[in-house]
Design brief:
By secondary structure, the chain is an alpha/beta fold. The chain is about 25% helix and about 25% strand. It has a single domain, classed as Spore Coat Polysaccharide Biosynthesis Protein SpsA, Chain A (Alpha-Beta Complex). It is globular and about 45 Å long. The two termini are about 30 Å apart.
């Protein structure tokens, strides 16, 4: 195992506040992060992978069916041996992908942290993805380091080519969504990207574009599988592969 050049990334933010509209009617009574694949919820798998990567503090934002996520987290904290320091950031009104993180910044002590989406599912090969991100993180040159999935390898769920990966490791957003890679939503960012942000709803995409414009958005290609679960059809397709 390589030692990270800039120390471990031991904190994370999980986006779990969305309504999951495309997964109705399931999400009328169950938050999307609690959908199960292979007998475990997406949120359980994400927390387990964070714990295995050495994360000891996590913040989860909530809105839709928030009490159900809070109850799950209470149970998880009693079962986990490593990741017990989990905070809920409840949003009475949705703050979007950027505003939700900004609201919770006080938990991260001005140090870099992982950001992940609550509706993603990934598997690793050899070196875990989170470890690879940590070992590649260089805050002297990067503000954001994102994990990208090759669209050509997305056969179970729909891939959108929203990024191209340059030879020097920088990522460039493909406005026409015809790029070679899809953003997995898994990333490391430095809190300084929020320095000019204001309270309220705003998109994290604005921060990605600004980092790209400053030459400080880098990417890592994921070597394993990653699935974006948007619909019940996606869940069924991935569940079938998981059983096999």
């Amino acid at each position: 195992m390589s030692k990270p050049l800039y120390g471990p990334i031991d904190q994370a933010f999980i986006l779990a506040a969305g309504r999951g509209q495309r997964m109705q009617p399931f999400t009328a009574h169950t938050p999307k992060p609690l959908v199960t694949v292979g007998g475990q919820s997406l949120l359980q798998r994400t927390l387990d992978q964070l714990a295995a990567a050495g994360v000891t503090r996590a913040v989860i934002n909530t809105h839709h069916l928030a009490p159900k996520i809070e109850a799950f987290v209470d149970d998880y904290k009693h079962q986990s041996t490593n990741l017990k320091d989990i905070f809920i950031s409840y949003e009475p009104a949705l703050l979007d992908t950027g505003g939700g993180i900004y609201k919770a910044l006080q938990h991260f002590n001005d140090r870099p942290f992982y950001v992940l989406s609550g509706d993603g599912l990934w598997s690793d090969r050899d070196t875990p993805l989170l470890q690879r991100l940590c070992e590649s993180w260089n805050p002297q040159h990067m503000d954001i380091l994102i994990a990208l999935q090759p669209v050509a390898r997305m056969t179970l769920t729909q891939g959108v080519g929203d990024y191209d990966l340059l030879p020097d490791g920088r990522a460039v957003r493909n406005i026409a969504q015809q790029g070679t890679h899809m953003f997995t939503s898994i990333r490391i960012n430095h809190p300084r990207i929020f320095a000019d942000s204001r309270t309220g709803a705003f998109s994290y995409l604005d921060l990605l574009d600004r980092a790209q414009g400053q030459g400080r958005l880098f990417a890592l290609e994921h070597a394993g599988d990653w699935h974006h679960l948007s619909t019940l059809g996606d869940v069924k397709a991935v569940e079938a592969q998981w059983r096999d």
